[in-house]
Amino acid sequence: MGEEEAVRLLEGLVRIPSPSGREAEASAWLVERMKETGFQARVDEAGNAVGLRGSGKKEILLLGHIDTVPGEIPVRREGNLLHGRGTVDAKGPLSAFLLAAAGADLSEGWRITVVGAVEEEAATSKGARHVLATRSAPPDFLVVGEPSRWDRIALGYKGRLLLDLSLRAPLSHSAGKELLPAEVGVLAWERIRNWCARWNRDGGTRGVFDSLDPSLRSFHTTPEGTHVLVELEIGFRLPPGLDPGRLGEDLAALLEDLEGARAAFAFRGAERAVRLPRRGPLAAAFLSAIREQGGSPRFVVKTGTCDLNVLHPAWPETPALVYGPGDSALDHTPGEHIDLEEYLRAIRVLRSALERIMEANR
Questions:
Q1: Ordered domains of the chain (ranges, CATH)
Q2: Phi, psi of 169 (to 5 degrees)
Q3: What does the pLDDT look like over 230-250, one tens digit per residue?
Q4: pLDDT tens-digit map of 36-75
Q5: Is the pLDDT of residue 90 over 80?
Q6: Does the annotation count 67 as an active-site position?
Q7: Reading across the β-sheet that carries 227-238, which strands appear in turn?
Q8: Is 3 a catalytic residue?
Q9: Is the N-terminal amide bond of 197 cis, ω within 30° of 0?
Q10: Which of 99, 112, 241, 296 has minimal CB crowding within 10 Å?
Q11: Which position among 23, 89, 119, 120 bears the catalytic label?
């Protein structure tokens, strides 16, 4: 497939809105494009777009995600830039996976599977979990598609824990001494933020990847007779070694006494942090492929969470890494766009890396 056709494939996929839970149209469209490029393809029971090329016993699994966060961005090309929701996170990497796998010289005894997974952005990772549940064996190599720039390889992602905190506080007068219900919610948030700061300080945290980072995602108050329901959604990015279950226990103890408010906790989206080794045949193949394209490859770790956090703990012996074109600083933003030259260069890197892996592991 030529460069203009490669750009049209990405643009066509980006033009189909696919926020988490509403990926069906995009998955069906991508399956048809997979078939056109020589894959056996289908939409699986979870809604993933799945394409298979080859029938060998050895397998490379390329898993990206087809869903996006909400908020459409008008799809348009401005010079060498393609604007639109998902161009970076992560339809750019997914489209690069498909085209690289379609164009690679398939060695005897190998097969390549490409998956466009659903609900990665919803913290459910429904698509990746379905892949785990329906496979009889892990792949020989795993590449997860997220933006890392064409010349960088991501080897680490922080863990995650989400807390839905509900506080039922009695009404009080703004002229009185008691905290207002909304202020009780602010007190809870400040207590959590200060506790995390102490955790980082006491642990001698050396950098952002090793820190425990809280974020206040939403804050709502709802009158209920003589009380007010205060609801907070709080997210935590976890460093390696921090168990989400233990963190939940510590947070529950921290919030036991909040100015007479009755607290209820619901934890979800728990994932451990992952950090992968730099050495190995998979990383070596990508390093060589990036250099072949004139790049100076670098390893990075990321402060977010992705489907690697789901797959790697289940397949700890499978060599894995994260790769894909795009600037992750544009993830989820109103200005999301991808440099098309970077996208095309990433396809070439991926194709070369796939061929190197298969050739070196016949």
A1: 3-157+273-360 (3.40.630.10), 160-270 (3.30.70.360)
A2: -115, 145
A3: 999 999 999 999 999 999 999
A4: 999 999 999 999 999 999 999 999 999 999 999 999 999 9
A5: yes
A6: yes
A7: 213-224, 227-238, 159-170, 262-271
A8: no
A9: no
A10: 296
A11: 120
